[in-house]
Amino acid sequence: MKEIRDIVEAYKKIDTDAVKVALATVIHVEGSSYRRSGARMLVQDNGLWTGGISGGCLEGDALRKAHYSMARNRVDVVRYDTTKEDEQQIGVGLGCNGIIDVLLSPIDPQDEHNPINMLASCLPERHTNCLLTIINSTDKRYKPGSMLKYSELPAGYFDKEVTADIEQALRSGKSVVRQYAGLHLFIEVLPPAIRVVLFGHGYDVYPLLRIGNELGWEMDVVARPAQITPAMKTLCKQIYDPDKQVPVDEHTAFVLMAHDYKTDKDNLLMALQSEVPYVGMLGPLKRRNEALAELREEGHTFSEAQMARLYNPVGLHIGATGPEEIALAILAEIRAHFSGKEGGFLRSKQGPIHERN
Question: In the chain, what are the domains?
Answer without folding.
Answer: 2-106 (no CATH), 115-190 (no CATH), 195-339 (3.40.50.720)
